[in-house]
Amino acid sequence: MHFTLHLSQRCNMRCTYCYAPPCESPVMSEAVGRAAIDLGARMTDGSCGIIFFGGEPLLHRDLIAVLTDYAAKHPSGRLFHHKITTNGTLLDGAFLDFAVRSQMLVAMSFDGVREAHDRHRRAASGAPTWDLLLPKLRMLLEARPYSSVFMVVNPDTAQYLEASAQFLIEDLGVRYLIVSLNYAADWTEDDFEVLRKQYEKLGDRYVRWTRAARKFYFSPFEVKISSHVNRDCYQKERCELAQRQVSVGPDGTLYPCVQFTHAGPDSGWRVGHVDTGIDEAARARLGRESSADKPECDGCAIQQRCNNTCGCLNWQTTGGINTVSPVLCRHEQTVLPVADRVARTLYRERQPNFLHKHYNEAYPFLSLIEDSEKAVPRP
């Protein structure tokens, strides 16, 4: 189980595709954060994930330190693992030292080449941020080489997708590149044709990277390849609203996923409170509704390989957790044939790196061990 703590809705950037401009909002108190950790300890049999979120969570780094320490010394003895998603503006060496000591995963938002990144990721003043954030990203990757980078693609930046992925993976050495569309934007068929051509080019790069034994994760292709390789198991990996992750608002209200905190505690999306626990009836109801068959998907050949179960994304774009965004639908139709072409090419070659990556469940652990051994100086 994962608990995403929204420390506040305050941010120090103005991203033009974001749901809200920079704003002031209530800040989560230490008491609420402790109560969320206590709830996680009670609800989880194994390790419990605590994700620090925002707005921009590094505006509240003292609170992060206090709550991380509280989890490490929790009387339950429960093991907690931590992650933070940041825009990078306040990232510095001191925080990275803390992240390494506490084994906290750090994910950073960065949209690739300057032309793509500066189009939408602006400071609160409106100034571009690429020059500010590139050194921060380099510093992060030096300290935490396995850090994820989140890239958002807009209609007016789709033309830079291949160049951006190449820059991040080849030039900067990013291992985990998580790419998402701005599904709320006005995508046209012309935009999707641009995106398709970019994916085709990236498909060729994916093949070359794999043959060259480069270790990387490029989410648009990896997810779709998994949907074929893992079949029934993949169904269990798809988004299940409120089932594996719960979001905690600054006041302690529990929500089924990250976007719903903006709906407020009086909305129908409340699934409990840190002081009283999860409303299991509400949680089960939302899970059923979001995973139910979608009429618009009837007869679709790829519906079992599609991300149509993401109730959070559906709600954000259509207002209903069980109504699929047309943009999501069109994107799935665009990316899946390219991913299948890539997988087919590498599988027919019996390419060892591809087979190891996608057919060996132990691959992530074996890869980490291999990298660790390479990092140890030889006597």
Low-confidence stretches: none
Return the string of H and E elements: EEHEHEHEHEHEHEHEHHEEEEHHHHH
Strand content: 5-15%
Radius of gyration: 21 Å
Largest sheet, in brief, is: 9 strands, mixed
Put simply, the count of helices is 14
Q: Work out the number of β strands.
A: 13
Return the average pLDDT rounded to an integer: 91
Strand order of the largest sheet: 9-8-7-5-4-3-1-10-11
Which structural category do the helix and sheet elements fall into? Answer: alpha/beta
Tell me the helix content: 40-55%
Morphology call? globular
Please provide a written account of the structure.
The protein is 45% helix and 14% strand. The protein has 14 helices and 13 strands. It has helices spanning 30-43, 61-72, 93-101, 114-120, 130-143, 161-171, 189-211, 219-229, 232-237, 280-291, 311-318, 326-348, 352-359, 363-375, and strands at residues 2-6, 13-15, 48-53, 80-86, 105-109, 121-123, 148-153, 176-181, 217-218, 245-248, 254-255, 272-273, 277-278. A hairpin with a 3-residue loop joins strand 12 (272-273) and strand 13. Helix 7 (189-211) runs parallel beside helix 12 (326-348). The protein is globular. The model has no long low-confidence stretch (mean pLDDT 91).
